[in-house]
Specification:
The chain is about 35% helix and about 20% strand. By secondary structure, the protein is an alpha/beta fold. It has a five-stranded mixed β-sheet with strand order 8-9-10-11-12. The protein has a three-stranded antiparallel β-sheet with strand order 1-3-2, with no helix packed on it. A hairpin with a 2-residue loop joins strand 2 and strand 3. The longest helix has 17 residues. About 30% of the residues are buried.
């Protein structure tokens, strides 16, 4: 991305990365004085007219979370047909799930928060018993210290964000699904960003998009690039760790994974895939697609206008500093902090 050109500089004692309309600033030291220089950036954290933050990649391409409930007729019909989401089913399922949670004495959750309950019920199509089993496993995993999903913060995954090892692509696919993109080959510096941080980064981004009602309905697809995968990358995934990660993704997470698309997979990938394959259930096995270097094959599943040019798509996604995604996530810091209040407790909390 080209260096921005300063528009003007002026003395001030205040500093802000971005203002409400998305202008970018930086401090300059000139002749012993401090000046604030304003830049017109092609990519920055900005805010829309409703004060909702987004990352502006330029040319109308932006990444923004949408936590509003869907109200359009097609989405409501899809929710009814695919998720059994009708007023009667919703009411009965939420009531039953609330009862089950309340019987699990050491599990503290916001059972009166309807949006929280629907976040877990939707991927299980409003069957409360199976939702409860998934929910228990999800929070048991979060209770494991220094592992794949506990205390997720932007600081804990900063290297993965900086290296863009895992990304939320700005555009959804033609079915409304979120697209997560992962670098698992030459562009992944596994010395700087070990596999544990890659998985933690993935889980944090999944939690962010998984709170979106639209994503709860339409689901998520992955595109994973294995270009020039090496033995050093493969060694990051011992079988026991792989089993834990795969089981968590398949059985214990409240997300509708609709497809996992592998690109640039060569011979080395076959070694890597042999580690994962024994742990894959029927559903995920049927949703993994190997495309090699054939982006036309990928486009049979994800339309080109939903993908960046690096994946044969039609829009440009400039090289960007991963820190700006951290800034976007930090706008929702209270969600991370709120999440830490919930889960399994060993004893009654001290007052």
């Amino acid at each position: 991305m080209p260096e921005p050109t300063p528009k003007r500089s002026f003395g001030t004692s205040a500093l802000s990365r971005t203002d409400a309309i998305g202008q970018c600033y930086c401090l300059s030291l000139l002749g012993g004085g401090v000046f604030l220089e304003e830049f017109q950036c092609t990519m920055a954290l900005r805010y829309d007219e409703h004060k909702v933050p987004f990352v502006d990649f330029g040319n109308g391409v932006k990444l923004q979370f949408d936590y509003e409930e869907f109200s359009d007729k097609p989405s409501k019909e899809k929710a009814t047909n695919e998720l059994r989401e009708t007023p009667d089913v919703m009411e009965a399922s939420i009531r039953k799930l609330r009862e089950l949670i309340q019987q699990e004495k050491q599990l503290e959750l916001p059972v009166d928060d309807e949006s929280f309950m629907k976040r877990f019920l939707r991927p299980k199509k409003y069957y409360p018993e199976s939702t409860f089993e998934m929910l228990k496993a999800f929070y048991h995993m979060k209770a494991k210290p220094n592992f794949i999903s506990d205390r997720l913060t932007t600081k804990s995954i900063q290297n993965a964000l900086d290296d863009r090892a895992v990304q939320i692509l700005p555009k959804r696919d033609q079915h409304g699904r979120r697209i997560l993109y992962m670098e698992m080959g030459a562009k992944w510096n596994c010395t700087k960003v070990p596999s544990m941080e890659v998985i933690r980064c993935t889980n944090l981004l999944m939690e962010m998009v998984g709170r979106e009602p639209g994503t709860q309905l339409h689901g998520i697809v992955f595109v994973i690039n294995f270009d020039r995968l090496s033995l050093s990358h493969i060694s990051q995934f011992p079988p026991k760790f792989v089993k834990t990660v795969v089981d968590h993704g398949q059985k214990h997470s409240p997300y509708r994974i609709k497809g996992i698309h592998i690109v640039n997979n060569a011979r080395m990938f076959n070694i890597f895939f042999k580690i994962f394959k024994p742990f894959l259930g029927k559903k995920w096995s049927q949703r993994i697609f190997l495309h090699g270097v054939d982006f036309a094959s990928l486009h049979d599943h994800i339309a080109p206008d939903c993908l960046p040019s690096t994946l044969g798509g039609t829009y440009e996604l400039p090289a960007y500093e991963g820190a700006v995604i951290g800034q976007l996530l930090d706008c929702y810091k209270e969600k991370f902090e709120e999440e830490e209040k919930y889960g399994y407790v060993s004893e009654v909390k001290e007052s």
